[in-house]
Design a protein that fits this description.
By secondary structure, this protein is α/β, with parallel strands linked by helices. It contains 13 helices and eight strands. It has one domain: TIM Barrel (Alpha-Beta Barrel). The longest helix is centred in the first third of the chain and has 15 residues.
Amino acid sequence: MGVALITPFNTNGDVDYTALMRLVDYQLQSGTDYLVVLGTTAETPTLTPIEQKEITQLIINKVNGRIPIVLGVGGNNTRAVTEKLKTDDFTGIDAILSVVPYYNKPSQEGIYQHYKQIALATRLPVVLYNVPGRTGVNMSAGTTLRIAREFDNVVGVKEASGNMTQIGDIIKNKPQDFQVISGDDGITFPLITFGAVGVISVIGNAFPKEFSRMVRLALSGNYATALHIHHNFTELFELLFVDGNPAGVKSMLNMMGFIENELRLPLISTRITTYEKIRSVLQELNIKC
């Protein structure tokens, strides 16, 4: 289980670096396998370049090599992404996560050519990220498999299309060492039974110990116990995203005393009705809030 880290903000809107370090400690102490920094859940588009560098360096220093760090490096300007990969300092970064280009709505050939340039621009392992609900375009199984077969440093895909047939096709036909990672907490359990290797998780921000245990149990073939844990989180999976991500998980972390319940516009906090539903579920799960 990797965790797509949130970015905590103070009530004045500044990055809360103290809370961020507290969250990283929590992850390190709770069995998280790796951290994903500056992903979607981090509200990265709202962070300044200086904030992005400070967040990345602080996390690198805090982790100090104890678990891998995957850095989000993507965009819809291929030249800008490749230039960043060629010129930035990636010391302390173990891999990059790069999203399918958004807004432009490229063709499948355009997506392939985009990732070809990325793969050629870095020696770091590259994880593709397919999330059509956000990007406006789906990377097909055929395109994913083409990229996986042609570029040795493209090591996996975070699949968040929700299309079980498509993901199953990738798992069935992928190169042996290419990893398929769930990008959706709610379908992680069934995807592992298909052959996925784990998840880049949102709910893991709040429940790293519990959710990583579910993943490990499922990977070891203990499906009954893993399914029990999965069912415990079913209501939270829905509440996480009903008002958008990361509003749901930030409200959970706020109830648990980790952060202020603050997001940066255009994102806003969960509705009070959602907040109270989350509180009720946490209380049922005997989680202090």
